[in-house]
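pinning this so it doesn't scroll away 📌
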Amino acid sequence: MNKMETDKSKLGLVHVYTGDGKGKTSTGMGLVVRALGRGLKVKIIQLFKRDTGEQFFFENSGVPYLQFKPLHPYFKNYDSAQLENIKKEFLEFWKAALFDIDEYDVLLVDEVGPGLNWGIISEELIFDLIEKKPKHLELIMTGRDFLPSILEKADYVSEIKKIKHPYDDGILAREGVEF
């Protein structure tokens, strides 16, 4: 292997897991577990979720795990004033959450897609993250409704497609399986 191939293998890439199927967060978390198993330093940022199984696991494991906790936009209709307040809160959270980004090998940001779709996260903010992230950092982003412009900038884009889901038959999310 020549020096150029070696250098490229050390570059952190950008992953997007999107689509309407179950498993976007689970896929990102799987990569996180693999990275931890190999001794990489990981940070997790979860947006719009609370009281999840992964939250309880990672909070008890010592892995840096942060949450931005407004209720998910899919489950609450926000008026324009509420959305403006959430945007301001998010920008403060985002700045504080990324201050030490250079210290990590892997960063998972869960539910970026809905944040973009609802205008809580700007396209420019994600472009800035992608362009200014440390070269070694593997960046994983999940969620439905990613903008095509962000998909173009990613190195990996996987679409999780729903073929069948129990929710369609009235079975709600189950603790330990869906959350």
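📌 and the second one:
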Amino acid sequence: MTATTSSSAATATPSPLADATRDEASLRRFLHGLPGVDQVGVEQRAAGLGTRSIKKAAKLWAIDTAISMVDLTTLEGADTQGKVRALAAKAKRPDPERPDTPQVAAVCVYPDMVETAVEALRGTGIHVASVATGFPAGRTSREIKLADTKIAVDAGAAEIDMVIDRGAFLEGRYLEVFEEIQAIKAACGSAHLKVILETGELATYDNVRRASWLALLAGGDFIKTSTGKVSPAATLPVTHVMLQAVRDWFVQTGELRGVKPAGGIRTTKDAIKYLVAVHEVAGEQWLTPDLFRFGASSLLNDLLLQRRTQADGHYSGPDYVTVD
């Protein structure tokens, strides 16, 4: 992820948006003054874009692009150093028999596994991401969240995926959420910050739009749908709302921020629907791993199978790729 893809902490927020974060009342007024989301409209548009047909040459490009956008992830209590090293090996060479297969964007692990991942990926250009801030529930003190972040950054993580306090957000304590994101962003140093909204717990599209803008105002480099631990996780309509937010942010500020749908995206067909949405809702500029990611490790297996099918003209079967 390059420094040009997002605002850095040093980038000044334009005055009207800075005024929005002066105090709780100003922030509430700004967030509740955002245009409401047309639920029927956004769901119909998402369904319509999902029916677009992709021709063979474009499909191969889409598959390679999707592979390059994957954050290959293991976030289990039974994670071991050996499992992380194996995941790193797959990240470097997703299909060992096809050396022209793109590498993935990042490997995402818990903070205590960052050092192992960094060592395994050194010199590859693949980023090491780490969840932090009491992932996935975030039900711990800010001091512990900051310490969690520091552990990951000190171990070499280039990206931090934090969870917002959904309870505080749903109770309307927007400034508290804003200040916590700001504090985590500062603790990241040069690492990029992905802000997980856990959209499945936000109940409405209007809340998704408000949470997206809140994260952007606080300095998040990416807004991310989900932890993958709550259902529903990523959906096309929710991702549309978030893509609209980063597009509108860019129009107002000139700053590029990214979007990461995570959880529930398992097939190449699904991935292509998301890429179409990126192109049509945000714009072609977002069709890069610097600005769009998939948090979906099982997706990679299907992408690799479909890539072989496109290249060879016949279905290869699941035994030709490793299963996560």
